[in-house]
Write a structure and sequence with these properties.
Layout: E1 4-11, E2 21-26, H1 29-40, E3 44-49, E4 67-78, E5 84-100, E6 108-114, H2 124-140, H3 158-169, H4 173-181, H5 185-207
Parallel strand pairs: 1-3
Antiparallel strand pairs: 1-6, 2-5, 3-4, 4-5, 5-6
């Protein structure tokens, strides 16, 4: 597959997974320009996590992680202030290969699409573990038991379940980035299951 040229939206603690929808409020001038240009082109952009220490060079080109989520703006609203509310649908993981010279206010990169490494063994047990841990989490948080039914629905690819649950449930930004970078679906499911078990146990312990 040929490389992609994508504008990037660097954010401190946001991880953008395939198979998810990400609402964003866009207020900085450079990213308002990015949204305007993206809407005039193919509506695609990448959301990438900033590396620690970004504050010192935030107005310039702070370091970002090499693996990002990319997708399409599927709905948008331009406010009277010039700001945007947008909804981005996650399509791919991408690896940033280089930053392109640009006269735009925002940054543009060349990136390669990353494909999942499909399971070679049965992952039913790993998915059952994730479902069980999600049930315990919802009970511990007094949330509706069906809140994650769509993310956990039967008939999805295992990698999509992992991505949707990671986006919806995992609070730790570094772990979310780790899961985004894990292309091996079996490993991603196992890592997610372990994290959810730990989180559910911590919440249960805090309530006892």
């Amino acid at each position: 597959m040929p490389p992609l040229n994508l504008p990037i939206f660097p954010l401190p603690d946001v991880t953008f997974f395939p198979h998810t929808l990400l609402p964003l409020h866009v207020f900085e001038a450079r990213y308002r320009a990015m949204v305007m240009d993206s809407l005039a082109r193919d509506r695609r952009l990448a959301v990438v996590k900033l590396k620690p220490g970004f504050e010192a060079s935030y107005a310039g080109k702070p370091a970002v992680h090499a693996v990002a989520g990319a997708g399409e703006i599927v709905s948008w609203e331009r406010l009277a202030t010039g700001r945007y509310n947008i909804l981005v649908k996650g399509e791919w993981r991408v690896r940033i290969e280089s930053e392109r010279p640009s006269d735009t206010l925002y940054r543009i990169v060349t990136a390669r699409r990353l494909d999942d490494v499909a399971p070679t063994t049965d992952v039913a047990a790993a998915i059952a573990r994730i479902r069980e841990a999600c049930g315990r989490l919802l009970r511990a948080l007094d949330r509706p038991s069906d809140l994650l039914d769509t993310a956990l629905a039967e008939g999805q690819q295992p990698g999509a379940i992992a991505d949707r649950i990671a986006a919806a449930v995992v609070p730790d930004a570094n772990l979310r980035q780790e899961l985004l970078e894990t292309l091996d679906v079996t490993r991603r499911l196992d890592r997610l299951g372990l994290a959810l078990d730990q989180l559910a146990n911590e919440l249960r312990g805090g309530r006892e």
